[in-house]
Backbone:
């Protein structure tokens, strides 16, 4: 168990790293952020920063010497970076998890291996393999790069009249996965924390609404039956346990129409704190960020109590300019990330807490 004056190393300097560092500071920890981007928003709130490439081994060695444990705010950390650091300091969650979750095909295969349902899928490593996958799964279907896709990037919808070869070229001709189209009713996510003692604590399932493939609104509690909510928590717990995970992860799921079996399909796993869990900062007695810090520090996990009905709204691009209006709305908290404005970029979020 780390003492409160220990230093936590964070790989990645985006808003998730920023919020992790703020949660760590509240518990008395210091943070050192390693990121190649000079304008990283997490740099503004931590004790020490290293601005260097993730493959700069000399810089990584100095970083490791300065910290007591290493974690990350995003899953696309180069494998050699994680291996190098793990030989010097504890890296949590375990870098072995990255090998699975960085690859959509490996991730879905892992989930299926646990007996948990997913959308139908097939490998599409070439235009020819894509044609074969389409014959198996049919149209419409979704083509996704196996690695490095987020917020709709690296994806293409294949409709009945879509040229499959053109779709493959549109995602860069990279190794891909084809997923059968799922007529789901709604998307939910479960943010779960697992401690080093194996205990798992889940936040309430959250219902998510997207805009242009980017998460726009999260609402909790999700508008689902209690048995569906309980099943969603059990799925997240099974995945965290199978990974021997330490930290916070999010499991995105599709809720199928009434009468469907199975009622839930796992869409993706995020081995980190997650945008759909931002509501926990203001809407629960312990946030996802504090839970993650507690877990990697070897501290007991908190037992989150939700303060009421909660809604989180992302401020995307120039929507950040609306922050003065949100400051006047009762029950609303404003979080701004200090980033340069770009179209489609998450610039901040607001959380609205309503009475139960």
Residues:
């Amino acid at each position: 168990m780390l003492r409160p004056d220990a230093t936590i190393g964070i790989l990645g300097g985006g808003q998730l790293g920023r919020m992790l560092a703020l949660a760590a500071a509240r518990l008395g920890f210091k943070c050192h952020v390693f990121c190649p981007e000079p304008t990283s928003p997490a740099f503004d709130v931590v004790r020490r920063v290293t601005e260097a490439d993730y493959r700069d081994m000399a810089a990584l060695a100095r970083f490791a010497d300065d910290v007591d444990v290493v974690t990350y705010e995003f899953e696309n950390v180069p494998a050699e970076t994680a291996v190098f650091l793990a030989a010097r300091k504890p890296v949590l969650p375990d870098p072995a998890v990255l090998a699975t979750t960085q690859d959509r095909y490996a991730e879905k295969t892992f989930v299926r291996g646990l007996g948990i349902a997913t959308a139908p899928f097939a490998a599409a490593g070439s235009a020819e393999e894509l044609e074969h996958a389409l014959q198996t799964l049919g149209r419409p279907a979704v083509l996704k790069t196996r690695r490095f896709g987020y917020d709709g990037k690296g994806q293409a919808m294949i409709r009945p009249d879509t040229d499959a070869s053109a779709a493959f070229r549109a995602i860069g001709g990279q190794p891909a996965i084809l997923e059968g189209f799922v007529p789901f009713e709604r998307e939910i996510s479960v943010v779960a924390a697992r401690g080093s003692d194996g205990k798992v604590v889940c936040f309430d399932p959250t219902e998510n609404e997207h805009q242009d493939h980017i998460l726009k609104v999260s609402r909790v509690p999700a508008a689902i039956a209690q048995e569906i909510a309980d099943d969603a928590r059990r799925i997240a717990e099974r995945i965290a346990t199978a990974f021997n995970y330490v930290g916070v992860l999010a499991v995105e799921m599709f809720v199928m129409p009434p009468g469907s079996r199975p009622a839930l399909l796992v869409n993706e796993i995020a081995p980190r704190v997650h945008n759909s869990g931002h509501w926990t900062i203001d809407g629960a007695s312990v946030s996802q960020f504090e839970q993650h810090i507690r877990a990697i520090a070897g501290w007991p996990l908190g037992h989150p109590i939700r303060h009421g009905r909660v809604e989180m709204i992302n401020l995307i691009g120039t929507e950040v300019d609306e922050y003065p209006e949100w400051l006047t709305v009762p029950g609303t908290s404003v979080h701004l990330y200090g980033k340069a404005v770009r179209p489609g970029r998450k610039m901040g979020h607001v959380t609205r807490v309503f009475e139960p």
